[in-house]
């Protein structure tokens, strides 16, 4: 149960620069996004106030490659972005992305600043008390470590583990594992929190932390981008759904769900996921409020 936790591609230059230097850009060539067209029957379900304005205001926290991050030109790109762009097109709306701290996105949805959040949110029962979620992906937790310095995610007592602050890894996973350590008479896990995941990833590369914990697609991407400086620690655990949060009771949830069902049916969803290498987390059917825990 995860981010949200954010992992970003860490280049050799960033690693040498240290944690005070954080990058939101990736040198990777971003895949071409498939196009999507308005479907009148689905677009007609959009709340009238949003329909009249013609914009879908989306709160996003970056960097969190490959889901949402900035390319070298400063454009926000990623799996989540391509999918949300296709959702907006299906609804006949223009997506407008607004950057925000991760912890402020749900309150901003509650306050009508954003229509929807798009930051790899794990749909949890606790979060469902504040907002509704439309599920669109399945992810788990995956740790990373430096090669040759093995860490057991289920027995990391006394180790320093880097994580993005306010994520499920920071608030639930690591505290539970640390308590298991102390209950067994072992030293606790030292949870090293960062405001952005690229800094947490960098801390492991620089030896300032023993391992990092984040969402599985993000950790896998960070490992790929680290040029051999990181490797997986253990297996993917505790798969749970990602969801788009919307205001509690908003009919927009049903609009988003129908749009995603359409994109799954016509193959656009699979194409987008495959473009970004995250097809292992695809779902067959979205639901509203599908939290497991």
From TrEMBL:
Keywords: Signal. GO terms for cellular component: cell envelope. It is found in: Cell envelope. SUPFAM superfamilies: Periplasmic binding protein-like II. InterPro entries: SBP_3_CS (IPR018313), Solute-binding_3/MltF_N (IPR001638). PANTHER family: ARGININE-BINDING EXTRACELLULAR PROTEIN ARTP (PTHR35936:SF17), MEMBRANE-BOUND LYTIC MUREIN TRANSGLYCOSYLASE F (PTHR35936). This is ABC transporter substrate-binding protein.
């Amino acid at each position: 149960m995860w981010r949200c936790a954010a992992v970003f591609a860490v280049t050799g230059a960033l690693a040498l620069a240290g944690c005070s230097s954080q990058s939101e850009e990736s040198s990777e060539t971003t895949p071409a996004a498939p196009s999507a067209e308005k479907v009148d029957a689905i677009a007609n379900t959009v709340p009238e106030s949003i329909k009249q304005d013609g914009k879908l205001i989306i709160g996003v926290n970056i960097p969190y490659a490959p889901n949402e991050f900035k390319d070298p030109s400063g454009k926000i790109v990623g799996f989540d972005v391509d999918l949300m762009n296709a959702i907006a097109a299906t609804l006949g709306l223009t997506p407008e992305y607004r950057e925000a701290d991760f912890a402020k996105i749900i309150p901003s949805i509650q306050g009508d600043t954003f229509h929807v959040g798009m930051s790899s949110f794990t749909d949890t029962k606790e979060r469902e008390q504040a907002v509704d979620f439309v599920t669109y992906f399945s992810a788990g937790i995956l740790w990373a470590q430096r090669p040759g310095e093995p860490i057991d995610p289920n027995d990391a007592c006394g180790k320093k583990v880097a994580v993005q602050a306010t994520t499920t890894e920071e608030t639930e996973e690591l505290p539970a594992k640390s308590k298991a350590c102390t209950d067994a008479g072992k030293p606790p896990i030292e949870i090293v929190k960062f405001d952005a995941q690229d800094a947490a990833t960098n801390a492991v590369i620089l030896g300032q932390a023993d391992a990092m914990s984040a969402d599985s697609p993000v950790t896998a991407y960070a490992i790929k981008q680290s040029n051999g400086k990181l490797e997986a620690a253990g297996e993917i655990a505790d798969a749970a759904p990602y969801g788009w949060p919307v205001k509690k009771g908003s009919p927009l949830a049903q609009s988003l769900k129908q749009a995603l069902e359409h994109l799954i049916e016509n193959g656009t969803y699979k194409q987008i996921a495959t473009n970004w290498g995250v097809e292992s987390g695809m779902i067959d059917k979205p639901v509203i409020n599908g939290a497991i825990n």
